[in-house]
Amino acid sequence: MLACCSSTGTRMPGRRGHPRPEKQRTANSGWRCGCSIPASARSCAVLPRIDPADVAAVGPRDAGELAAAGVASLDGQLGALIRPAELTSDRYATALAGLPPPWWLHTDLDVLATGELAAVDYPQPGGLTWSQLAGLTATALATDGCAGWSVCIYNPDLDSGRDGADAIMRYITQAIAASDQPAR
Hints:
single chain; 5-stranded mixed β-sheet; Arginase, Chain A; globular
């Protein structure tokens, strides 16, 4: 998932872009395991707080799995939540424009279709292509207010030929070059 987050005070990217039913417990840090948004009031006093209204999330496709597991959806709780079937360049641009600067771009590579990158621990049906993800990322990086970018979710144990690692490096290079922004 791509998640663009802004918070008051210190900025910090979320650890995960989507809730995972098998990980829904509160960790010692106060974060819901598998979710980007602090789950307890205790965490707000200790960790930087990300206001859900200041999050634009793109690419979640696990609504059915969450519902079956009795896990609440983030629908209606975020500034923008755009599922792949609802994704348009206009809707994405509107979501980015609605973020108060500075904000952080966080990319979970399991937003990709499994055929694009199988080296993830949480594969799901559907997903984006590398080209779609690179375009979305370049747009976000070129948008005023983007303070930085993190990329995560890659399991080298599931990538014996390292084709996935090579694709990740091409994606990062392509996104930075297309954004016309210097590497930071």
